[in-house]
Design a protein that fits this description.
Elements lengths: L3 E5 L1 E4 L4 E7 L8 E7 L6 E7 L4 E3 L7 E6 L4 E6 L8 E8 L5 E3 L3 E6 L1
Parallel strand pairs: 2-11
Antiparallel strand pairs: 1-3, 3-8, 4-5, 4-9, 5-6, 7-8, 9-10, 9-11
Length: 116
């Protein structure tokens, strides 16, 4: 059973930075992609950033230039750096891992709150 454990998040003022990490229970290269979705109150879950097995990185338009995803294979960990945070970045951030069949596994979620 795949397990994803998230760390990071918290409360920060607008313009500040945070870091998230997601550690998998197995080799992260077993997955086609890993990354984060987020869900704001009253809104649907949306893709924030992902990195695929080949190293390609994709970002939501709203976070391009501010967020950066990376990974460390030996540590089985994916990282998300959040810079220049805005109040609209507030939400619960969920780490995910996906395989080619579009099966997903999810982390427990971590709260990011950006105050104006």
């Amino acid at each position: 059973q795949v397990q994803l454990e998230e760390f990071g998040g918290g409360l920060v003022r607008a313009g500040g930075s945070l870091g998230l990490s997601c550690t998998a229970s197995q080799n992260i290269f077993d997955f086609n992609a890993m990354g984060w979705y987020r869900q704001a109150p009253g809104k649907e879950r949306e893709l924030v950033a992902e990195i695929n097995v080949g190293g390609r990185k994709d970002y939501a338009d709203s976070v391009k230039g501010r967020f950066s995803i990376s990974r460390d294979g030996p540590k089985k960990t994916v990282y998300l750096r959040l810079d220049n945070l805005k109040p609209e970045d507030t939400g619960v951030y969920y780490c995910f891992a996906r395989i080619l069949s579009n099966r997903f596994w999810w982390g427990q979620g971590t709260q990011v709150t950006v105050s104006g």
